Amino acid sequence: MEKYYHITTYGCQMNVHESEKIAGALTELGYKACENIENADIAVFNTCCIRENAENHAFGNIGMLKKLKAQKKGMIIAVGGCLPQQIGKANALHSKFPYVDIVFGTHNLGKLKDYILKKQGQKKSVIEIEECDGVINEGEKALRTSYPNAWINITYGCNNFCSYCIVPYVRGRERSRRSEDIINEARELIAEGYKELTLLGQNVNSYANGTDDIPFYKLLEKIAAIDGKFRLRFMTSHPKDFSKDLAKVIADNEKICNCVHLPVQSGSDSILKAMNRKYTSADYLKKVDILKKYVPDCAITTDLIVGFPGETDKDFNDTLELVKKVGYTSAFTYVYSRRDGTVAAKMENQIDKEVSKARIMQLIDLVNSQTREHSAKYVGKTVEILPEDFDKKKGMYLGRDEYGAMAYFKSERDVIGEFTKVKILGANGISLSGEITED
Ligand code: SAH
Ligand code: SF4
Ligand code: F3S
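That is the input. Now the predicted structure with FE3-S4 cluster docked in place:
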């Protein structure tokens, strides 16, 4: 009889790729993917705890499975990832949802297969959280689902301890994979036909820091030197480690996309200090100038937080001013979320929800106006799109250009994974639409 799995993923690209590794492990156990969770023999929730609403989202979905599990006794429910990795959360989760069979963390993701087999032999739930002790697992076979893009981990964990952030506590200390392993994986993926590689890490530009392996910009250079037509992207860069060498490598290598995600978080120096970001707004703007000097057409995107403890109207205005100065093509905007165990959670002057709400609305308006302005410049131009999906509702293919702009267009045949010239005819906020052209 066929056995099916269903994975629900929350959070960042790191988790998206880790779900591909979980899918690989489940495939080895003989399970097949299914779209509807009701058909699943094993349902896995790969969770995130970066903000309260990410946690609530997962809690809500796990809660909804109670009924299904009561009807389908043999079904296995597994909850893993960042949420249970927080101190005390695995047991709390199991007390709230006793019908969850397996709880695992970020570090022992590779052992899910063993936990399933263990659970099948016992009535009791399997709750296994390990310390993030710095081990790197090589050779886990991912079942990739994001063709034509392929994710590649280059670092795990984070040492930065930004005062608001839970990631260093749930992902452990920063460690880098060996460049040889990364380059070999990249070469294999290109040979398999992937057209875009995205290097992943919490802070990719501190890659190999403190070891004798090559620095990040050299790693990029080596991957870009692999034969074949493909795009190379990376995320995320921390401004404190963004260097001239990196800007030059982006400028000199056509395969490296002229598109950099450079999270600033705030434009206020006192808030940046309280956030432990290790740069001032002037330092940040200097890095942006270096990037613009070497890569004048570079699309710059960012992450912004409003309502950090102690943020005054003046601090918030500094953020607005910085956003205006940089001119982002797009930005992720967040309301600060208090995370237990972080330094900021204990700070006084937590900001009133209503104040944060008003600030984020104002910030979103500004960011959206910049994005619209940027999109409008596309109309009439021909761009090279890498089609990644088909939108059934619209009846159109969609893909991105090198700068990360999303475009929709019609095609008679399946063009997913084929670089396609598209003439842009319309811009609607963040997305573009156009038609295939031969020029
Ligand atoms: N390592 C990456 C991404 C970390 S998480 C980096 O440093 O950029 C992605 C984003 O979530 C962060 O950039 C930050 O803007 C946001 N974030 C992290 N913790 C948060 C919190 N407690 N509340 C609100 N936003 C948060
Ligand atoms: Fe969190 Fe800061 Fe590390 Fe990013 S760099 S993961 S925001 S601690
Ligand atoms: Fe969330 Fe963990 Fe990523 S907390 S943002 S899934 S590293």
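The pocket of FE3-S4 cluster (ligand 3) is lined by residues 11-12, 14-15, 48-50, 82, 166-167, 170-171 (CB under 6 Å).
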